[in-house]
Every structure is written in C-alpha cells, then in structure tokens.
Amino acid sequence: MDWELDKKRPLCPQICEQLCIMIARDDLKPGDKIMSVREVALLAQVTPNTVQKSYEQLEQQGVIYSRRGAGWFVSENQEIAQDVRKQYIRSKTEEYIRNMQILGLTGDEIETYVKEFINE
Amino acid sequence: MDWELDKKRPLCPQICEQLCIMIARDDLKPGDKIMSVREVALLAQVTPNTVQKSYEQLEQQGVIYSRRGAGWFVSENQEIAQDVRKQYIRSKTEEYIRNMQILGLTGDEIETYVKEFINE
DNA sequence: ACAACTGTATTATTGTAGTGATACAGTAAT
DNA sequence: ATTACTGTATCACTACAATAATACAGTTGT
Beta-strand (E) ranges in chain B? Predict the structure, then answer.
C-alpha cells in the first residue's frame, strides 16, 4: 500500500478508501490487526488524530473495530469483507457507466472505450 | 442540466464539471453564451461568488471566457470543446480501470462487470 | 513491575471553502 | 439616457478539516 494521499482533497475519506481497498484485495483478512493510528499517521504524513477519525468512521460501518490499548482489527464477520469488495466494484462501475451515459454514449461505445484503454 | 450539487463536497469542482459535461454533450457549442453567475447561483443554491470562482477556473483552462458586462461564453476555439469531451472520457475511463486493476481484476473480468451493469 | 506500545480525549490554532452583503463598472435593449 | 442586466471586487463572517501538542488509560511482552 502506498499511503501517498492527495493533500488537496479531504484526507479522512482517502484513508478510509485505502483501508477498504486493502480489505477488498484480501491483503487484510477478517480478524487481522491493522496498522496503528500513529503508524499510519507517520507513513501518510498526517496527524494521528486524522487517522483516528478515519478509523472511527469505518468502525461505524462495522468494517473494523478497536480494542483499547491493543489496536485496531478487521471485523471477524466474513460477510463484511466480501461486501466491501462487492460494494466497491458496484459503486465504481455504476458511477463510471452513469458518467458515460450522461455524455450520450451507448452501451457498445462504453464497452469499446473500456477495451481500448485496457490495452495500454 | 440539473444543478443539484452535493453540498457535502467542494462546490467549485462540481460546477466546473457540470459545465464541462454540457460542453462535452454539445449542449453548449463554441461561442455560446452560458448562464450568468447570478443565474447559476440561484439554480444551484449557491453564492454568486462561488460560481464566479468556478468560471474563473475554467477560464484559466481556456474553456470559457468573459466579456465584462456582457456575460460568459464558451471558447470559440473548436478544438477545445472536442478536447473537453475526449479528456473527460479518457480520464474517467482510465481512473475506473485503474481502480479495478488495483483490486486484482483482469481485463476480461472488468469487461464482464461493465456489460453486466450496463443492462440495468 | 516495567517499558513500550496501543487507543482515546482535549484544547487551541491554522487554512480554506463558501456565505452574505454590498458596491462598482461595463453592456445591451428600450 | 435610462433601465436592467452583466462581470468584478471586497470585507467580515461561518463552518469545517486538519494540525500540533499533550495527557490519560488500557494491553502486551519481557
């Protein structure tokens, strides 16, 4: 994982997305310990406070949880990890197709562009 | 055009994108007069100041230009309108594919998802 | 028990996007 | 010329994200 954030965009959502990607890639499996607030803060060049907030947001979604003093862990619930992956793919794909359709592109045209840009 | 902005995200980029989409759709053609700062402000429920800033950003990119007292217009340069469309498609498509590849999806898998979600 | 790590909380401060109000200046139609 | 529209500029204000510094509390390994 790179942890090179775009400092010109809100950081919390970016940190959340990075974590979700790692879970969706199965780099982080259910129950795994994840990097500490301070550790990520150092790598991502942000304040521990910012990472804390990001983690708390993901906790609210049931994706991760904390044990005071021990650390943060990926939810043991197997379904959630799968959902994170499915949701990520679904939302990104739907958003992409919607954007292209707004321009008036047909389904075939969209498929053509995707094929074209995959070979690069 | 809807002008229903997401108030929880930065507004200027959203206004810029809406304009670019209208140009990419050919709803606005080179030389066309576009809605005034105050008009858009009213429709989008934002401050004229915010729209002004957005327009100035697009002006810097050469997409539109202003005539003091008269209004804002789409650049007469034909190439720019075409570029806006091409750039929009290219950047969105590349971003989408990159996101999917990060998850480990193959080209075929990506194409399959796109086809699947187009039929909905 | 101790040291070194964890999460958590608080406070003050900074930077910035957007608001709201107002004013001035140029254009265009009547 | 007047009126009603444009763009442009400024100022004080609000809201919020993120920083920076610090402190406290719980866990873990030695």
Answer: 33-34, 64-67, 71-74
Q: Which of B24, B103, B111 sits opposite A25 (nearest CB)?
A: B103
Q: A33-46 pLDDT, tens per residue?
A: 999 999 999 999 99
A107 to chain B, closest Cα gap in Å: 6
Q: pLDDT, tens digit, for every residue of B69-115?
A: 999 999 999 999 999 999 999 999 999 999 999 999 999 999 999 99
Instruction: Judge whether A27 and A20 are in contact, CB under 8 Å.
Output: no
Yes or no: say if A25 and A81 are a contact pair by the CB < 8 Å rule: no
The domain ranges of chain B are 11-118
Q: Which residue is closest to C20 in terms of CA–C1' distance?
A: B47
Architecture label for domain A11-118: Orthogonal Bundle (1.10)
